[in-house]
User: Fold these one by one.
Assistant:
Number 1:
Amino acid sequence: MQLGLVGLGKMGFNMRERLRRAGHDVVGYDRAAEVRDVASLEELVDQLEAPRLVWVMVPAGDPTRETVERLGELLDEGDLVIEGGNSRFSDDQRNAEILAERGVRYVDCGVSGGVWGLEEGYGLMAGGAAEDVERAMPVFDALRPEGPREEGFAHAGGVGAGHYAKMVHNGIEYGLMQAYAEGFELLAAAPQVENVPEVLRAWTRGTVVRSWLLDLMVQALERDPQLENLRGYVEDSGEGRWTIEEAINNSVPAPVMSAALFARFASRQDDSPAMRAVAALRQQFGGHAVHH
Amino acid sequence: MQLGLVGLGKMGFNMRERLRRAGHDVVGYDRAAEVRDVASLEELVDQLEAPRLVWVMVPAGDPTRETVERLGELLDEGDLVIEGGNSRFSDDQRNAEILAERGVRYVDCGVSGGVWGLEEGYGLMAGGAAEDVERAMPVFDALRPEGPREEGFAHAGGVGAGHYAKMVHNGIEYGLMQAYAEGFELLAAAPQVENVPEVLRAWTRGTVVRSWLLDLMVQALERDPQLENLRGYVEDSGEGRWTIEEAINNSVPAPVMSAALFARFASRQDDSPAMRAVAALRQQFGGHAVHH
Amino acid sequence: MQLGLVGLGKMGFNMRERLRRAGHDVVGYDRAAEVRDVASLEELVDQLEAPRLVWVMVPAGDPTRETVERLGELLDEGDLVIEGGNSRFSDDQRNAEILAERGVRYVDCGVSGGVWGLEEGYGLMAGGAAEDVERAMPVFDALRPEGPREEGFAHAGGVGAGHYAKMVHNGIEYGLMQAYAEGFELLAAAPQVENVPEVLRAWTRGTVVRSWLLDLMVQALERDPQLENLRGYVEDSGEGRWTIEEAINNSVPAPVMSAALFARFASRQDDSPAMRAVAALRQQFGGHAVHH
Amino acid sequence: MQLGLVGLGKMGFNMRERLRRAGHDVVGYDRAAEVRDVASLEELVDQLEAPRLVWVMVPAGDPTRETVERLGELLDEGDLVIEGGNSRFSDDQRNAEILAERGVRYVDCGVSGGVWGLEEGYGLMAGGAAEDVERAMPVFDALRPEGPREEGFAHAGGVGAGHYAKMVHNGIEYGLMQAYAEGFELLAAAPQVENVPEVLRAWTRGTVVRSWLLDLMVQALERDPQLENLRGYVEDSGEGRWTIEEAINNSVPAPVMSAALFARFASRQDDSPAMRAVAALRQQFGGHAVHH
């Protein structure tokens, strides 16, 4: 089928390619002239036959909101917008309202898979009305991995449910990564184990901890067995924070997911103010030496 | 090749079967008469041709130590014992010494895979001298999953390294399980998501969090979509505790693995003494109501 | 000086008494007829001479907002409202704006001390313009403990800073309580220590952990040495949640304060959905028994 | 009364002074010639009249064990050794056995108070037989703070209970310090609060979080309001580690005490291997930039 795709960055660029391989007719727009098919959103909308389907894949926050607002002005009743970026679920309701004023439908979709999605397909979680989700199914089917639809796609609930499910997915992801990371550090620190990369590789089949993340870890260690060529400085992109806030809103204990988030915060500090306070206290009561 | 297998419980029974399917000649002994091939350790040793290989798969702690001691009395110089149970790595050095007095060789081997190992193979991590590990390779090859040897087997280091690697594997496993569990609880608690089992199923291909544990979670939810037919009471079998103790010994921060362990402890308490203390304090300073 | 006090609950009632003991002329209003001095907010405002000072001490959220709005209608330019309840700091800016439309000034004030404040005084943290804070100083001086002003009162910053400081105070409080509680549980669990209440009492002078909370703990154990007469069920009143959300907003690692919050959430669960998920996983991969 | 004191370091030196001020006759020995009263343990034992009381205050581990062994050789039946250092509780049983071979009695005593103990007294927790503890009471009374005995001294149980109680005391101390430290960091990070040291000072009377540690924090901030003159590098001296190990041994959840310990470990890492692993994973799956 025909669709518009707004945003051709790291994710959107690959998604256009995967959609085209599946036979879809994709009209792509981006601010970057070298990757886009059309020079403006207006042109994109003009090239699509009504009822249109436009997939939005731009950075979360203001860029997404502005794109939705602009599409609200350009699209017609019965058109459908799918927001596939990393929006916070709480933005979706307002997005839907903005578009509803013009009779434009809205579906949010959490997309997982990163740079591997082009070849392996993307895990998809959609939120919105059943008929809207159904209408976009050929697009979802092209993007998701081979195999049974339900193993790579879910209709999670109403508007916002797709991004909510993706947010929790990322919260879990933080926890999984931190678990492997702590295990790696312990193996590397313990004198008992001589071949850390080989041990992790031996876990990739047959063990309880085998996973795609473990496979990636093995690949990373293959190139750099002690991970010496990078620093332990880890960004976070929002979903982990939102997950903890939602855990708090729902009174759900989240010790592991929050520990993983806080470890990232700490990784970005040259010197911890909290630990300066602890050092100062120890000096006060015990005369313990401090480091300057 | 020919080998003895001591311990035919949940793990050992299946391992004998997998070894036999691979063409090995296994003489199995267990205290339970209905599963064993021979009636005593003496008989087991008698039936094996020297140099013998005996795999021990009995409960960790005293049963393993007693088996090793008894084998030390029965075996001859040049024989090889492989300890494949859930021993603490710190037991291995002593086991090796006991056997070395009689010239018997020792390899420890961490085994992962649970009840699925019979069909899918077991992840193996061995510790010991290179020549001893090499000698047992046909056995390791039969037990490990299909595919490249290094993806299901590692020689982790000297005596004890196999169990050490398996211990860390289990510490990671605790963290992974808790991460999925927290995410599951949040999805179930949040009103936004309507189809929790479907969301988890949609993660099994294409997403960053796909893993074997996730597949198992999906299977569990298939039978019992809200996990209503069991209680949130979780045992632990030692490795998680040892992992945290080793993290402490090596000054390795382990917030996620420890949070997962403590969540298990808490799951087994009907009423938390610590939280009684917090409730008592709140009553003292704020006149806050307490529950009786 | 003369002031109005809106809200005569557990906190406000005692504060009126402490203010009167200090010689202030307090006109108190509450919805509950049996404690109030005047029958309506209108009457309260009428009885005060301009420029008026009105202290608001009603539940956070809607009750506080409605009281502020109503006071905005009743008060005159140059009057001053002090919001001393448990409002979230983010409410203060809006409160100040509502009142500013009528030329009414606004100060927020975090108040700590609980039921002991009547006799021992309240710790106070104020936010607002310097001249407004200065004007209310006789009231602050009456409410705060004896001793140097700076040991019981701080002007923390602009509007909202008082409640922000109080929020962090409560986040710390959560952490302190949980630390004592974990220590108590460990002492009670360990066979080595026979006299747990006596050990805690022996910490009240001379040790590094001595504190007012410890004194309260000792008092609680005096009445109920094993805390058998209450349940480990602990509410939370919002500030702990907000503290973690602010830690996240400011990328501040907060492992201790968050662990204390999550322990409260867990204390209120009869059965943990997360731990049901862990139990289900263990059953799936290891055939481990589950509890029903 | 007369007693010997072995070890005149930071703690022992001050304790000798406090004991002398109370009228006790203290014979002090240390390896450092400039502080000691006698030149050898032999001389110390010679100068004491039987039945002797010798307080040991040397570093935990080998120095303490060696001192106990040497005293076992020098002392006579009926003499009493008090081990007041930072020994692990599990060392006490063996110490007692070594001395019991010669009929020498043994009491262990946890001592809290740091450099302030000279003036304010030391919190004391003793373990041993009732008659031995009773015999040393004049010494305990001199060392503990003024006031009721039970507020600065406890007989916690049998041999080892004193050090056990002190260990838990320190575990709590870790948690308390970390709670204040996290609150300090959040206050310092938040733009809303302008006067962080003043806010902490205002908590020292009247609030729920008032404590001796808070007083020390205020003093530290007085000299260095942003704690700029030290680094966030924090050592640990063993008790925190042992506390977590005991929590694990007793299946006691200890999320706060362990988080405080792990924060110290992390504070000493220039670059976290675990966070390098997380960064490597993010690069693998998402093409996220890493820092070099």
Number 2:
Amino acid sequence: MSAHKDFVANNSQYAETFKEGDLPIPPSKKLLIVTCMDARIDAFSSLGLNLGEAHVVRNAGGRVQDAVRSIIISQRLLGTREIAVFHHTGCGMLTFATPQLRDIVKNSAAPEHATEIAQVIDQTNFLEFSDLEQSVKDDVKFLKENPLVLKDTVVTGWIYDVHDGKVKQVA
Amino acid sequence: MSAHKDFVANNSQYAETFKEGDLPIPPSKKLLIVTCMDARIDAFSSLGLNLGEAHVVRNAGGRVQDAVRSIIISQRLLGTREIAVFHHTGCGMLTFATPQLRDIVKNSAAPEHATEIAQVIDQTNFLEFSDLEQSVKDDVKFLKENPLVLKDTVVTGWIYDVHDGKVKQVA
């Protein structure tokens, strides 16, 4: 695995025409996007966003429970006041259950790490879901009810379709 | 705040020319990028990556400690075997300390949530850093030494410069 060996060459092309070097730190649209790490998602392009306009938090599933630290920093220090949560069709999070993944990790543990791994992994919730639309609604509810999130935050929930590139609001 | 009101119109332009509807779930380069949520970073474009090639995990600072759940899912269920960690110049994480942010959150808490908020926030490490290059090295070390990360994972560490769009390998 050596994808990183292409980074410098590819990046030098990008840097040649780079013109956005003076953008301020706070996102100009006061917007934070939470979306999945999925390789088929380009958060900026698919929403017509430009550099400098929005924070983008990405993790497995686009789960907000795993984004609270980032949301606090984004809101309290960098002024964002709107959160849009995106989950997507064909997500890997629809394909497994936490107990099963715990077993995969524990069963492949080197003997010298087995106890340590079991202790950590048995307390890890992988935040998978079985109902895509419901998972978005759950995450929007989580944010609206969370006292760590600023009270007047505008929170919306969306599904991105990886097959046709379209977004649909569901919350 | 209503940036979301433009999503559907902007997205319909994107969807009109969308041609990548048949990509498989596993990233074709078996690569996972960890980078910051910063609004000035376009992970795909700046590295010349195409849709479908890499998972992208983003959080405040691009800290790997906050990405372990996603990394396990990416490696064990979706086959990635390389991790590239990117932090960047001008990062908000260089501008504050955890105790200070804890105070900001606690001081603005509604009285009815004050106890609950204090309990959570006093246990939250915001993972800020004071030395950019060292923070990348620390994160690469964390991954290399973490038994939850697959043993033969290729891990590299990088700095992205938001002022000229260039990347530099530091670990």
